[in-house]
């Protein structure tokens, strides 16, 4: 019994110290957004529900008002029914709002907002001026390739998109 | 003390694990439809899976449009993301969570049929897919 308690105590101490030692520099290195767009801590419902059909798109790519419009129209989500129960829907919306382009304080969000009309509430990330400009060197034919499908399929080219990494050197456009 | 902790863990785990199975879902849908479980028809389920309906944009669609003609194979969402196989023989996770099953019936029936599916249709569907297909 005493050994067990002592064991737990040692584990807890080591765990706390290593968490303190590693978590601070790690989050600093990531900076305020950096090029890693995965919000932390991520929201379980956001991750699970959004990614059952497509990549869980980073919240910092659209403003708050866009996410509100989008989440209030899930029954007709780009031609498909993506309805959720009210509790899950509200939970995901809260997360999206908190990390939205105009709310999360991320560098990425600022870049998106710089090129967005103040009153604009686009529903498609691909329609934002930031996205269009960022992808202007991608040949038009690439988007419609069968291996890509559509511009909504980030992970077709951004091989680490699911981890929130969209750096140029992780891009490979499939043939 | 360790024993007690282990027991507590076990109890938590078993309470957490979804208790649903294809058989329990079939029983539930049969009851909702007011028929015996034995009255569910795998053949009708298969026909339902393959039947084509004219969609909102004029194109015909069926369950197979996204889940492919062979439900043991992986399908693809419209955006190009992989859909794990529907048949429990190829994907044991299927039909083990009633809430999830209901969520997807509601969404996909509205998309493909533009109405909700009946309990009988759902029961036939699970009966076919869980037969081993």
How would you describe this protein?
The complex is a heterodimer of chains A (175) and B (133). Chain A is mostly helical and 175 residues long. Chain A is 43% helix and 0% strand. Chain A has 2 domains: 1-30; 44-170, no CATH class. Chain A has 7 helices and no strands. Chain B is mainly alpha-helical and 133 residues long. Chain B has a single domain, classed as Cytochrome Bc1 Complex, Chain D, domain 2, CATH 1.10.760.10. Chain B has 6 helices and 4 strands. Chain B has helices at residues 2-16, 22-33, 42-50, 63-67, 98-112, 119-129; strands at 53-54, 60-61, 75-76, 82-83. In chain B, strand 3 and strand 4 form a beta hairpin. The chains are: A mainly alpha (175), B mainly alpha (133). The interface between A and B is medium-sized, with 21 and 15 residues.
Strand order of the largest sheet of chain B: 1-2
Strand fraction band of chain B? 5-15%
Give helix and strand order of chain B, one letter per element, not per position: HHHEEHEEHH
Q: How many individual β-strands of chain B?
A: 4
Give the % helix of chain B: 40-55%
Task: Give me the secondary-structure topology.
The complex is a heterodimer of chains A (175) and B (133).
Chain A: H1 2-30, H2 44-50, H3 64-71, H4 86-98, H5 107-114, H6 129-134, H7 140-143
Helix pairs in contact in A: 3-4
Chain B: H1 2-16, H2 22-33, H3 42-50, E1 53-54, E2 60-61, H4 63-67, E3 75-76, E4 82-83, H5 98-112, H6 119-129
Antiparallel strand pairs in B: 1-2, 3-4
Task: Tag the structure with descriptive keywords.
heterodimer; A: 175 residues; mainly alpha; 2 domains; 43% helix; B: 133 residues; Cytochrome Bc1 Complex, Chain D, domain 2; two-stranded antiparallel sheet; two-stranded antiparallel ribbon; 6 helices; 6% strand; globular
